UniProtKB/TrEMBL annotation:
Annotated InterPro entries: Dimeric_a/b-barrel, Tscrpt_reg_AsnC/Lrp_C
Name of this protein: AsnC-like helix-turn-helix protein
Location of the Transcription regulator AsnC/Lrp ligand binding domain: 6-76
Gene3D superfamilies given in the database record: 3.30.70.920
Species per Swiss-Prot/TrEMBL record: Umezawaea tangerina
């Protein structure tokens, strides 16, 4: 599975509609509106790099109001839940 974070700049008046449209695209799991340098952040999960290559320029970038995208592919995930599970291997409760 390929996980990517897509940073999206959008026209201010189009942010809610663009976010909803992007959220409905297959492969997009979440869309966040945010403050800062970007307006929206989309979390994308696809099977192949080719799927990502189609999804971002072929669909997300073509959504009305989207001005620019910047895609970051993740290599590894770190979370509190995964860290706790790794360190609890071999420990028995009781």
């Amino acid at each position: 599975m390929i996980n990517a974070i897509v940073l999206i700049q959008a026209a201010a008046e189009s942010i809610p509609e663009a976010a909803q449209t992007i959220a409905e695209i297959e492969g997009v799991t979440e869309v966040y509106s945010c403050a800062g340098d970007v307006d929206l952040i989309a979390i994308v999960k696809v099977d192949r790099h080719e799927d990502l290559a189609e999804l971002v320029p072929g669909q997300i970038s073509k959504v009305a109001g989207v001005l620019n995208t910047d895609t970051h592919i993740s290599f590894r995930s770190y979370s509190k839940r995964e860290t706790e599970a790794a360190f609890s291997i071999g420990l028995e409760e009781g």
